[in-house]
Amino acid sequence: MTLNVEILPDPDAVAARGADLVASLTHQVVASSGRCSFAVSGGHTPWAMFERLRSIDVPWEHVAVYQVDERVAPEGDPDRNLTHLMASLPAGGDAEVHPMPVNDEDLERAAAGYATSLPERFDLVHLGLGPDGHTASLVPGDPVLEVRDRAVAVTQPYQGHRRMTLTYPVLDRAGVVVWLVTGADKADALRRLRARDPAIPAGRVHTGDQRVVCDAAAAG
Q: pTM score, two decimals?
């Protein structure tokens, strides 16, 4: 497992570098296989990255976008990751977007259904990092951390919402994981991620190729 870390001056530089990485990696995958599967997490940093992607050449017509995680909240709710994702994607609808079905009455059945739509492995996954060391909606102390027999699972309430999330086996099979991390409040979590500390959820991601793009504040 390789964890490459790139430290940049500020969040704007992180968003720009993240956009460049995503564009480059999607072009590489599309050139070699004709199609790229890309799973995206929530949070402010990826939306800034997507804003940058609007002005960069990305083969969106050959990209399938999935959600890494989603809050159980009404459609259009500002707490929904999908709301911000759809607002951030380039206009024109070229990308094929697969929303997590968090409005279904039976969330466990919905999670199982979403799992059937996933590719055998993701070419590219974006992950964020919380101050408590969570990533995706793999949060400290939740039983979802131990799920190995399902690709998609539903969490207990966390910060006001239950959530649907990809599980470790799916993340570990990905071709590349790109972590975007900004802010001094992430410094301890990032230090522990770099140390591969299994006591935090992020430290238990074992994808072979992991690339961290962080700002100076997060790097400590």
A: 0.94
